[in-house]
Amino acid sequence: MRALVTIFAVLLILISGYQLSFTWFVNKHESAMKAKAIQQVKRLFPSPEQKYAGNKEAQALYQDTVNTLVNQRLAVLLDSTKDQKITWWGNSYQKAKESELLLGLDLQGGINVTLDIALDGLIKGVSNNPKDPVLLKAIE
User: Fold this and answer.
1) Residue 68 is part of which domain span?
2) How many domains does the chain have?
């Protein structure tokens, strides 16, 4: 019985490692391509501080433009390398991207929920007599 549990645990670890490896390879490839995109944009365009020295508002606007250019260049680089082998066992970027573990919005920090409660409805709901005129007058 102990050997069976050990074998099951080892198999579970190996399968989990295999599934996580796609995420690791994809993140590594995307980080390398982002660094390459930043390098290419920096080579072609001056920094905001150089272009608009002393004008913080213009620097911020220009930085947005530079960020857009980096994102566009990154998209081109990722598209051009979609058939490139990035895993040790020869999977392409596109295949690894399809197999990576997907993170929900809660794990990416992209979800915020606000609960809006009408207090008058809450008070009426917990009161013994929600039609009481004194209660209704106090709520108004």
Assistant:
1) 2-102
2) 2
Q: What's the pTM?
A: 0.66
Domain check: are 73 and 117 in the same one? no
Per DSSP, helices labelled H in the chain are 2-44, 48-51, 56-80, 93-99, 105-108, 119-126, 133-139
Closest CA to 99 of 19, 30, 24: 19
Answer yes or no: do 77 and 135 share one domain. no
Which of 49, 46, 70, 67 has its CA nearest to residue 59? 49
Instruction: Assess if residue 107 is contained within a domain.
Output: no
Same domain, 37 and 84: yes
Q: What is the pLDDT of residues 58-97, one digit of tens each?
A: 999 999 999 999 999 999 999 999 999 998 888 899 999 8
Burial 7-30 (b: 16+ CB within 10 A, else e): eeeeeeeeeeeeeebbbebbeebb
76 token code pair:
């081109």
Given a contact cutoff of 8 angstroms between Cβ atoms, the answer to whether 135 and 129 are in contact is yes
Express each pLDDT in 90-137 by its tens digit.
889 999 988 887 766 556 666 666 777 788 888 888 888 888 888 888
